[in-house]
Protein N-terminal glutamine amidohydrolase
Amino acid sequence: MSSSVFCSNLKDTEHYCLIILIKLLLYFSEENIWKLCEYIKNHDQYPLEECYAVFISNERKMIPIWKQQARPGDGPVIWDYHVVLLHVSSGGQSFIYDLDTVLPFPCPFDTYVEDAFKSDEDIHPQFRRKFRVIRADSYLKNFASDRSHMKDSSGNWREPPPSYPCIETGDSKMNLNDFISMDPEVGWGAVYSLSEFVHRFGSQNY
């Protein structure tokens, strides 16, 4: 298991993430990560300012990610978007927390990029990933979802929703699309290409 400042008491964090996996589903990654940010803030064991929510998508909302539980083996899952937690350790190494991966949890940033994202050179331009990186405190303050994106045209759930109430703010009940959007003029945080993301947070270039 990888070590980091954030994971100095990893058993507690692992236990909470297992609870998330039991209570929530694969299809609500944005809420999984919101809840993980909330846990970090409330337990005050780790510096929240070192943590970021990372939305991964593109203009076509078709992104390949490898090493996902939804597709064991060598092939990628094609998501419309995916959300992970990025921890920029004070020790200098960054880690990715992906509740849907088969890679180590947490996974060193460079290992995750190499195995889960691979290289843009091998991917058609229309499928290349972009990354919206939002500080955890901003994500907790601003994110809202009424889960309407998980209902079909008849209003039925495509997948069972979490049991707790929808996440909302004083200003919004649904702004998920502002986080999924890779338009830098929209929403919160900063938007990066894969190479920019790796240059900013990793130790290798892809």
